[in-house]
Amino acid sequence: MNYGKPSDFEEEIGKAVVHAAFRIHKELGPGLLERVYEVCMEHELKKAGFEVERQVDIPIRYDGLWFHEGLRLDLLVNDRVII
């Protein structure tokens, strides 16, 4: 697959994600449940002005069947970046 170069806005989101991850890790350290880090990441990104959705269901279709809970994204930022 060829996705091309990320847009400037997608790069901005990526930088904000990395910054938030470092901040959260510095404050909380390792070893907590994933859900804790997920909630903190959502909070940090919303503080930075991004739209964030948690636990987004992505349906999967197979042989005429629809699995509405087929895939779940932890975080979706501004409908562009999946975490």
Describe, in plain words, how this protein is organized in 3D:
The protein has 83 residues and is α+β, with helices and mostly antiparallel strands. The protein has one domain. It is built from 2 helices and 3 strands, in the order ααβββ. A 3-stranded antiparallel beta sheet has the order 1-2-3. β2 (65-77) and β3 (81-82) form a beta hairpin. α1 packs across α2 (34-47). It is globular.
Radius of gyration: 15 Å
- Average pLDDT figure: 93
Task: Detail the poorly predicted runs.
Answer: none
Provide the spatial order of strands within the biggest beta sheet.
1-2-3
Main sheet attributes: strand count, strand direction, barrel closure: 3 strands, antiparallel
Number of strands: 3
Secondary-structure-derived class: alpha+beta
Overall helicity:
40-55%
Number of domain units: 1
Number of helices: 2
Global geometry: globular
Strand content: 25-35%
Elements, N to C (H/E) = HHEEE
Cα(first) to Cα(last) distance is 19 Å
